[in-house]
Design a protein that fits this description.
By secondary structure, the chain is an all-alpha fold. Helix content is 82%, strand content 2%. The chain contains 8 helices and 2 strands. A hairpin with a 2-residue loop joins β1 (80-81) and β2. The protein starts with a helix and ends with a helix.
C-alpha cells in the first residue's frame, strides 16, 4: 500500500509538471508569433505568410475582406504545432491542471477514509496544494489569454490599417489612384523644374566685359593661332 501511495504521489507531481511544461511551451509559441506579427510584411513565419496570401487572394477574387477580426480568428484557429492545433494545446494544459487537482483531492479523501498516518495525509495535502499553486502562479505570470489577444491585435493592425487600404486602392479604386499619381507627379515635376530653373539662374556665370583694346589683342592672338 505504501508503494501505491508513492505512485499516486509521483502521478500528482508528473501530471502537474507536464501541465506546467505545456503552458510554458504555448507561451513561447505565442511570444514568437507576436514578434513575427510585429514585422508581418517581412516575416517568414508560416502563419503570417498564409494570412497575407489568403488576404491577398480575397482581393484578387474581387471579394475583399469585410470583417478582419473574424478572418484572423479563423486562420489563427487552424494553426498547428506538432500536428495539434494551438488552441488544443491550451485546452490540454487546462485539463491537466484539472487532473492534478482532482487526483490530489481524491488521494487525500482516500487517505483520510483509510485512516492513514497523519503525516501521510499532510504530505499529500501539501503536495497537491504546492503543485496546483505553482501552476496557478505560472498562469498568472504567463497570462496566455492576453498574449493571444495581443497577437490578434498585432495581426489586425497590419491587415486592417496597412494591407487592406493598399489592396482596396489597387483592386477597387485603381483608376482613381492612377489619376491621383499622374496629378501628383505632374505637380511635383513642375515644382522640380521651377527649382532647377531658379538654381540655374543663380549659378549662371557673370558675363565678362572687355575693353576695345583688349578685344583687339584677343582678336590678333586668335588670328595668329588660326593661321
Amino acid at each position: 500500500m505504501v508503494i501505491e501511495m508513492r505512485d499516486v504521489f509521483f502521478a500528482i507531481m508528473g501530471i502537474g509538471g507536464a501541465c506546467a511544461a505545456i503552458k510554458l511551451a504555448v507561451n513561447g509559441i505565442y511570444r514568437r508569433l507576436i514578434r513575427e506579427a510585429g514585422q508581418m510584411a517581412q516575416s517568414g513565419n508560416v502563419l503570417m505568410k498564409m494570412l497575407l496570401k489568403k488576404f491577398e487572394t480575397c482581393y484578387e477574387l474581387k471579394m475583399g475582406v469585410e470583417n478582419v477580426d473574424i478572418f484572423v480568428k479563423k486562420y489563427l484557429n487552424t494553426y498547428k504545432k506538432a500536428g495539434i492545433h494551438l488552441y488544443t494545446w491550451e485546452i490540454v494544459g487546462d485539463v491537466m491542471f484539472g487532473m492534478t487537482l482532482l487526483v490530489s483531492l481524491l488521494a487525500n479523501l482516500y487517505i483520510s477514509f483509510m485512516e492513514y498516518d497523519r503525516r501521510i495525509i499532510v504530505s499529500f495535502l501539501l503536495t497537491g496544494v504546492l503543485v496546483c499553486g505553482v501552476i496557478i502562479l505560472e498562469d498568472i505570470f504567463l497570462n496566455i489569454p492576453f498574449k493571444r489577444q495581443r497577437l490578434m491585435v498585432e495581426i489586425r493592425d497590419y491587415l486592417e490599417n496597412i494591407y487592406k487600404p493598399r489592396l482596396d486602392n489597387q483592386t477597387f479604386r485603381k483608376e482613381e489612384m492612377e489619376e491621383y499619381h499622374r496629378e501628383y507627379f505632374d505637380e511635383e515635376r513642375a515644382q522640380l523644374d521651377e527649382l532647377l530653373a531658379m538654381k540655374t539662374e543663380e549659378e549662371s556665370p557673370v558675363r565678362i566685359q572687355f575693353t576695345k583694346e583688349e578685344e583687339e589683342v584677343i582678336e590678333e592672338v586668335l588670328k595668329e593661332y588660326i593661321i
